[in-house]
Amino acid sequence: MGVRLRRVLVVPAVLLGFAAAGCGNSIEGAAVAQSGSSDVDSVSSGTSPSGASADCTALTKALDLVSDRPHLTEAVLPGSTDPTCSWSKGPTNVMSTITASVKPQVTDPAVLVEMRNGTNVVPDPRSAEFGGVVLDVVAMALLTPEHSIIVNALDPSVSDATKLDVAFAIAEYLEN
User: Fold this and answer.
1) d(Cα 72, Cα 90) in Å, to the nearest integer?
2) Residue 104: strand, helix, or coil
3) What number of other Cβ atoms are within 10 A of residue 7's Cβ?
4) Residues 58-83: pLDDT tens digits?
5) 31-59 pLDDT per residue, tens
6) Following CA atoms 91, 82, 124, 136 in sequence, which dihedral angle do they give, to the nearest 10 degrees?
7) Residues of 59-93 as b/e, b for ≥16 C-beta within 10 angstroms?
8) How far is it, in rounded angstroms, from Cα 84 to Cα 5?
9) What's the maximum distance between 2 C-alpha atoms anywhere in the chain?
């Protein structure tokens, strides 16, 4: 497996782990985050907290941004129930891959506000529409009060702006 292929498959899993490990449940002694509860369905079950389906096939239909990459691969990484969606120009053209990982993750808005003052923050005004924050952590990560959306691409022609467009399109889809 090539270095770039490993990066597109492993990076979302590692980032999700870092996000989970780095987000405590308190700031200065006040409880601000909740771990997943029974009212938050996993992405693989076909529903999100807002009731929108988040499986890869549904996301593909909602994302015009990946229409030039018709080959869809859905994978569930070990220890997760949430799919990682990968779109490429063909089954053997891994260098054209755009990958998105969507995970239901309840994060208190106070934590997200505090994260905006941290490092690796991408100042995108669209994040305020979702009450979230964008982080550049090898991939583009959009964290909202209900989801963690991580988008990466092996294709060097895919800009960070395009990755953000995909992340925000997914967030909009999940809200509607």
Assistant:
1) 9
2) strand
3) 16
4) 888 888 878 888 988 888 888 888 88
5) 333 333 322 223 333 333 343 446 888 88
6) -70
7) bbebbebbeebebebeeebeebebbbbbbbeeeee
8) 14
9) 51
Contacts of 131 (CB under 8 A, 6+ apart): 109, 112, 144, 145
d(CA 176, CA 61) in angstroms, rounded, equals 14
User: Which residues 6+ apart lie within 8 Å of 159 measured at CB?
Assistant: none
Helix (H, G, I), strand (E, B) or coil at 41: coil
Q: How is residue 65 annotated by DSSP?
A: G
C-alpha dihedral (14, 43, 67, 100), degrees to nearest 10: -10
pTM of the predicted protein model = 0.69
The pLDDT value recorded for residue 20 is: 37
Rounded CA separation 100/103 (Å):
10
